[in-house]
Amino acid sequence: MAITVRHFVSPLLSLSSKALRWKTTTATALKNCKASAAGKEKSRSKSKPKALVLEKRRTRSGVEVDLGLLRRYRDTNIPHLPVLLCEVLRAFQPLALRSFVDCTLGAASHSSAVIEEHEEMELYVGMDVDPVAHQLALPRIQNVVSSRGPKLKAYTQLANFKDIKCILDAIAIEDDHLVISSGVEGIFIDLGVSSMQVDCSERGFSVLNNGPLDMRMGPQASLSAADILNSWPEDEIGRILRDYGEESNWVHLQKQIVGARANRPFHCTKQLVKLIQKSTSLTRGRQGWIKTATRVFQALRIAVNNELENLEDALYSCFNCLAPGGRLAVISFHSLEDRIVKQTFLNLVNCGGRQNPDQHEADNHLCKENISEVEVSEDGETWFKDRVHGKYGTILTKRPITPSLKEETFNPRCRSAKLRVLQKLSTPR
Ligand SMILES: C[S@@+](CC[C@H](N)C(=O)[O-])C[C@H]1O[C@@H](n2cnc3c(N)ncnc32)[C@H](O)[C@@H]1O
User: Fold this and answer.
1) Residue whose CA is closest, atom 24 of ligand 1?
2) For this chain's UniProt record, which GO biological process terms are given (predicted)?
């Protein structure tokens, strides 16, 4: 049976153990809600040593990393390992996961593991904004799904996760999926760029390998990093370096970029890296310029892909799509993302969604009061430690869970990962 998804240009793939089919569909404009900028988190512990403060703000995972599991779900063709895999499986383990959405397919490692772990699954939806990742994930999903009976229906979609609601609505209408009529039981987001994207110099994400200044994750992004560097006003360039890169030297760099582009427009990453090397104080050495370059690249990537607005919109939509009792798990890789996840989770569990601007003051007060309502878990899932209970849900991770030292040793790229999980209440308190 063919599937029609209204509102999308991108092809929808429906996979089941019986059938695999594509259908390209018509496009209409999708609503792109304006997101408010995430508020700056107060630094309350300025005087404490940095390492101590970092350890306190997070909970290093106490889950024993299963290297066999990691090896099993890695993609052997590419140097990619799923991050916090055991913790993600644990987060969804207690649920009867009849429906599950992976918003960031990547190489489909997390997806494959979750599907295999939940035999009760009847509906799986995976999406990625990157056509290369989407193509890579297809055979892997097909492989795990083909070993299951016709009970499990699987769909993959080349799409931005901010459009999750439209995608699920379209699937529900087309295939008459009663299983998602009251929402999906599990949603997972693994943010950031994948190893495949970073390691492919043609994509322009790598500081160390020369490539075009592109950085678009998917074809929907209209601007490339070169477009921003060559055409944006000076103060806008400064703003993204400061706000998205958290680069302290942003004023100097903004001036250098604007001066350099007047002589020769930017077209490759090497040009930008050379400018950063020259602008970074010699005393800071290689680590100094690499760190600055990483922050500048992060700023450009976030701006090109509108990452922060998309994330906030997506979190509200995901909560909206969750079934009562369903869980949303998010892995973030830098403090800007994590701040948005943390703040939006608080809004969601306390206010059920975005705050009405008129009520902002009163609700903010209410939210802050509820935040202090933290309880130590008394049921079986003691690995979650502290929780935050709100009117509409519970944050199961008051502090984010970070990889164990063993996982960090095995996969150094996971070291900045943070996992936060929330559960929607069956009925508001
Ligand atoms: C860290 S990788 C995910 C890896 C994946 N969990 C796995 O097991 O292989 C992040 C993926 O998210 C995708 N992505 C980033 N932003 C997205 C968005 N707004 N919508 C959909 N996919 C997105 C990227 O293209 C990338 O493939």
Assistant:
1) 193
2) rRNA base methylation
Measured in Å, residue 133 CA sits from the centre of ligand 1 at 8
Distance CA 389, CA 425 (A): 10
Give burial (CB, 10 Å; 0-12/13-18/19+) of 279.
middle
Nearest protein Cα to ligand 1, atom 12: 104
In the chain, the amino acid numbered 9 is: V
The CATH H-level (homologous superfamily) assignment of domain 222-305 is Putative methyltransferase TM0872, insert domain (1.10.150.170)
Pick the CATH number of 12-28+38-195+308-424 from 3.40.190.10, 3.40.50.150, 3.10.450.710, 3.40.50.300: 3.40.50.150
Q: Which of 104, 144, 190, 316 to mutate to test the pocket of ligand 1 (most atoms within 8 A of CB)?
A: 104
Distance CA 334, CA 51 (A): 17
pLDDT digits (tens, 9 = 90+) for 101-123: 999 999 999 999 999 999 999 99
Positive or negative CA dihedral for 113, 127, 387, 65?
A: positive
Q: Identify the band that residue 49 occupies on the pLDDT scale cut at 50, 70 and 90.
A: low
SS3 66: coil
pTM of the model: 0.84
Mean pLDDT (the chain) is: 82
Q: Worst-scoring range by mean pLDDT, 10-14, 100-104, 277-281, 298-302?
A: 10-14
Mutate to test the pocket of ligand 1, among 8, 103, 188, 194 (most ligand atoms within 8 A of CB): 194
Q: Which residue has the higher pLDDT, 363 or 94?
A: 94
List the chain domain ranges. Answer: 12-28+38-195+308-424, 222-305
Residue 41 has pLDDT above 70, yes or no: no
Identify which of 80, 82, 77, 156 has the alpha carbon closest to the alpha carbon of residue 113: 82
Atom index in ligand 1 nearest the CA of residue 109 equals 8
Residue with CA nearest ligand 1 atom 2? 194
Q: Which of 84, 105, 164, 331 to mutate to test the pocket of ligand 1 (most atoms within 8 A of CB)?
A: 105
